[in-house]
């Protein structure tokens, strides 16, 4: 590789490192905000179903804690022990985190991870998406959307539109034009689904309830997809 090639490679690495650092700072802000909001929930809210299928609010919080304490080596070791069944591994982690702990103790656990930069393998922006989407799994289910800095939601939308990692967002929105009505963001072509960007992000990740907050012919297409 010549000097120009090394220079380009170095620039790309610096850009990737900068993006990762920015994503972790966003995650810190989102976790801190989420912890404060969770502290306002009633005990009855913790037992309610979330938007994440088959998970209660309490279980979603347990999952967020488990993810924030995970590392790539721990992830792969647990995956092997679970027989490479990701669903079983996740359920076991939630059970371990929540067992014997009160709701307030779960909030304290998540608060202790606000500054953490540990996670399963994957780009940092995916964990920003995890924090925002699972937070809305809770609060969209018990009331309404929470406020997020627009740049955080744009970063997550830009990640999901090109990613099939675990949740298959890229495939889910194929052939549909997405347009945000609360900021300058759009993606794709075909029948349109429009609405708040946060609702579009949830729709991209398969949250059917968010489709009620969108309009356009593309909504019917999204309803037909898992």
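Q: What amino acid sequence fits the structure above?
A:
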């Amino acid at each position: 590789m010549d000097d120009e090639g090394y220079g380009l490679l170095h620039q790309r690495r610096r850009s990737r490192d900068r993006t990762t650092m920015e994503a972790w700072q966003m995650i810190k802000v989102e976790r801190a905000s989420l912890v404060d909001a969770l502290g306002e929930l009633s005990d009855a809210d913790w037992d309610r179903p979330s938007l994440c299928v088959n998970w209660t609010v309490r279980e979603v919080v347990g999952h967020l804690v488990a993810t924030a304490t995970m590392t790539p080596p721990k992830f792969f070791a647990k995956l092997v022990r679970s027989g490479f069944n990701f669903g079983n591994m996740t359920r076991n982690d939630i059970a371990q985190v929540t067992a014997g702990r009160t709701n307030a103790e779960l909030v304290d656990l998540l608060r202790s991870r606000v500054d953490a930069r540990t996670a399963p393998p994957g780009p940092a922006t995916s964990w920003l998406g995890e924090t925002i989407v699972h937070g809305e799994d809770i609060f969209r289910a018990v009331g309404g959307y929470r406020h997020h800095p627009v740049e955080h939601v744009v970063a997550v939308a830009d990640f999901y539109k090109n990613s099939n990692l675990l949740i298959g967002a890229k495939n889910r929105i194929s052939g549909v034009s997405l347009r945000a009505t609360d900021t300058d963001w759009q993606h794709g072509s075909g029948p349109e689904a429009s609405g708040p960007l946060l609702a579009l992000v949830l729709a991209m990740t398969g949250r059917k309830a968010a489709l009620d907050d969108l309009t356009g012919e593309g909504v019917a297409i999204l309803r037909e997809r898992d």
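Q: And what stands out in the fold?
A: The radius of gyration is 18 Å.
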